[in-house]
Amino acid sequence: MAKRKKKFSAPLTAFLCVVCLIAGLVLGALGAALYSAATFKSDEVPPVLVQGELQIHFLELGNKYTGDCTYIKAGDVDILIDAGSRSSSVPVIAEYINQYVTDGKLEYVIVTHAHQDHYAGFSVTDGSIFDLYECEVIIDFAMTNQEDKGTNMYSRYLAERDAEIAAGATHYTAAECVAREGGVFALDSGITMTVLDSYYYYNEAETENDYSVCTLFTYGSYNYLFTGDLEEDGEEHLVSMNTLPEVTLYKAGHHGSKTSSSDALLEVIKPEVVCVCCCCGSSEYTDTDANQFPTQAFIDRIAPHTDKVYVTSMCIDYDAGTFASMNGNIAVVTDKTGVRVVCGSGDSRVLKEWEWFREHRTCPDDWK
């Protein structure tokens, strides 16, 4: 594919510079690990560039809201799955992945479903991920309950995506991927990405979550599963429609909600490491403590399989907008020595070892 002209604008460049400058000055003055959206800078400690043939990075998103953004480096291939949680997350995402994406190109962009906490960063007029990077292949949801109203987030997403397609990007829906070579994409260094088949690529769902694009990455004997916000019914279909292996890594479905990561899925994949992308303990969606991410129900179901559960961020005061890193930007790195987890916050405690867990959750017997 011929290299396309980058779509940076002068106002956007100035905005990114100001955001980074303000964040650096404020954090330097405070010397604290407590953040608000105005003061957040990716990871309190100096970033450590990880090395490894396959790197999977779960990103903090710079605000009190729960959202998803996963950056994957497979050899020399750069992949971005989702770009939540708000438009203000775009500079935070760019700051982090620019350490690894040195040519301004994302070979694959995957947009799992049309919820703000997953695709806000693709829906910014004059400043989206599509504007910042040359995106070669775009894979998105095959169905949605959203309507194009001309001015809403979904409309902006379509406009940004279609502009990137017009500039030369290749576009597939998840259903089209499955029809093409069984959804398998050869990446680099023997790594493959498979877009898994799903019932709700073809059938209407009550919740937008079940339209999520689901992917499996494989490197040798290691497997890594991503299910977006797929819920219990969708997970049951996922199990029946695919031959799923046991997995080294599972990105917790729907931020560790009670409606995902069902026994039907977990008993098949038997995850060794689980990463939860959320602002732990936030009241964004509910005031019921047990149902705040990661939920008690999720913990109880995960516990028989592993205690290696890592969480990106933690809410301190939702009304005040303050939050802190738990494990921070989490990198799961695979190389010839095996798999390791690198926590950007410098704190590698698993979920059960955190004070928040002891205060808000009941420890399952399997974790005692």
Quick overview:
The protein has helices at 10-30, 89-97, 116-119, 129-132, 153-166, 174-179, 232-241, 263-269, 296-302, 355-360, and strands at residues 34-35, 54-58, 70-74, 77-81, 105-111, 134-140, 170-173, 184-186, 192-195, 215-219, 222-226, 249-251, 273-280, 309-317, 322-325, 330-335, 338-343. With 368 residues, the chain is α/β, with parallel strands linked by helices. The strands form two sheets. Strands 1-15-14-13-12-11-10-9-8 form a nine-stranded mixed β-sheet. Strands 7-6-5-4-3-2-16-17 form an eight-stranded mixed β-sheet.
Largest sheet: 9 strands, mixed
Which value, in Å, is the CA radius of gyration?
Answer: 19 Å
CATH superfamily membership, which one?
Answer: Ribonuclease Z/Hydroxyacylglutathione hydrolase-like
Number of strands: 17
Calculate the terminal CA-CA distance, rounded to whole Å. 54 Å
CATH architecture: 4-Layer Sandwich
Please count the helical segments.
10
Stated plainly, the CATH topology is called Metallo-beta-lactamase, Chain A
> How would you name the oligomeric state of the polypeptide chains in this document?
single chain
| Spatial strand arrangement across the major sheet | 1-15-14-13-12-11-10-9-8
CATH class: Alpha Beta
Structural category is alpha/beta
Q: How would you spell out the order of helices and strands?
A: HEEEEHEHHEHEHEEEEHEHEHEEEEH
Provide the helix percentage. 10-25%
Sheet-strand content, in percent, reads 15-25%
Q: What overall geometry do the principal axes of the alpha carbons give? A: globular
